[in-house]
Amino acid sequence: MRVLVAPDKFAGTLSAVEAAEAIAAGWRRRAPGDELDLAPMADGGPGFIDVLHAALGGELLAVTVRGPHGEPTPATLLVREQTAYVETAQACGLHLTGGEGAETATTYGVGELVAAAVDAGATRVVLGLGGSGTNDGGAGLLAALGATADRPLDQGAAGLAGITGVELPAFDVELVAATDVDNPLTGLFGATKVFGPQKGIPEDRLPVVDGWLQELAVATDRKVALADGAGAAGGLGFALLLLGGTREPGIGLVAGALGLAERARAADLVITGEGAFDYSSRGGKVPYGVAEIAGEALRPCVVLAGQVHVGSREMRALGVESAYSLVEAAGEERAFADPAGALADLAERVARTWSR
């Protein structure tokens, strides 16, 4: 039997590469004769660079940039031919903020990554947006690339209070925002209201912070602020669109780079997974994207996840035949203490049902 193994990371426990290897190890214990094709996935968030480097090759460049609160932060660019890939979470990720200081956290380091890519000869820069701990509308990125304003652009959302004018830099490098988030910059479905709480912005501060981003939109381009994806990564999508960038679905970009559609057609079964499989997975997460590709190839798709929070009806709506919970199978303590071993054991159990 041919099995395509295409999981996302299990946030906080396993990278996508580690998850794929654990699933393969367990599956082989039960079905050693099966042919396994490992395709670790990412949607633009953490793991974006690792997954693309494994699939595309290219040169990894180590750089040091300004972190969300000004601290020197190591990051890595992937350069292949004249295209550079940037994982924005490396410079402004939630893991760097700890869910604190979102009002003053800056994306300046992301702009420094883009500048480093251009210095390395890139004429096209693809930025994976996801996992951000910032909410500055991409103002920091703009500052790092030469934008000026009547308020500081590199002091987070709080620095934007009272902004009335922004001078954008001339920028002739092609920018691509890789994200499946389609939220606008501001408003009820904007970056602050939807994603602010998970970055540590208290409920009573959301209207204030959203107001700062509205001022940035008025000072630049209100029409762009309404565009799909402008609210991605705390408004990084907005900044990239302001500079003439385009938006591509993150999962689609990665799947294309990996040739996932062709690999799914060559398989008999597709396995994917993530830390928590719930109905929000429809919003551009890896399992939903992989399940769509499996469906187009007329192949069944199953999910192995840390936790499963959807019923069978919702699962079918997401294009998934079955979903299996690591916590339910191994217990919460072991799932976190030995995630690779527990996932391998779960994969072995699933192989009993699905391997012919």
From TrEMBL:
Taxonomy, superkingdom: Bacteria
Q: Which InterPro entries match?
A: Glyc_kinase_flavodox-like_fold, Glycerate_kinase, Glycerate_kinase_RE-like, Glycerate_kinase_sf
One Pfam family per UniProt: Gly_kinase
According to the UniProt entry, its GO molecular function terms are: kinase activity
**Keyword annotations for this protein?**
Kinase, Transferase
Supply the NCBIfam families for this chain: glycerate kinase
Q: Which family does it belong to?
A: Belongs to the glycerate kinase type-1 family.
What's this protein's name?
Answer: Glycerate kinase
Task: Say which species the protein is native to.
Answer: Nocardioides conyzicola
